[in-house]
Amino acid sequence: QVQLVESGGGLVQAGGSLRLSCAASGRTFSSYAMAWFRQAPGKEREFVAGINWNGARSSYADSMKGRFTIARDNAKNEVYLQMDSLKPEDTAVYYCAAGRASTVSESTYSYWGQGTQVTVSS
């Protein structure tokens, strides 16, 4: 069982940066692949970035490549999402998720946080 709690969301101007954190409970955190998803109003939840269990491999949605960076610290049971050059279209609720494989599919992930709101003003 893994419980996830996101933090770090907020209001930022276009072009600014935010760093999201996701704290995980449980001693098996390092065995899970982690990912960030987001859901904008009126839209389906979409994959943002994923990272494998030891941080050696990461993947990004095309629109986030070069702007977002996912990282993890297994000693702290945390995963991060550094978001730079933010755009108004990045406004969404951001969720972290834990699963047994690093994929872009929601169904891969068994555990989800409650989400944190990111709002980017123009």
Question: What's the layout of helices and strands?
Answer:
Blueprint: E1 4-7, E2 10-13, E3 18-24, E4 33-39, E5 46-51, E6 58-60, E7 68-73, E8 78-83, E9 92-99, E10 109-112, E11 116-121
Parallel strand pairs: 2-11
Antiparallel strand pairs: 1-3, 3-8, 4-5, 4-9, 5-6, 7-8, 9-10, 9-11
Structural descriptors:
7-stranded mixed beta sheet, globular, 4-stranded antiparallel beta sheet, 122 residues, mainly beta
Question: Which shape, going by the Cα principal axes?
Answer: globular
Helix fraction bin: under 10%
Low-confidence stretches: none
Derived from helix and strand composition plus strand pairing, the structural class reads mainly beta
Number of strands: 11
Q: End-to-end span in angstroms? A: 40 Å
Elements, N to C (H/E):
EEEEEEEEEEE
Proportion of β residues?
Answer: over 45%
The DSSP helix count reads 0
Mean pLDDT: 96
Largest sheet: 7 strands, mixed
Please compute the radius of gyration using only Cα atoms.
13 Å
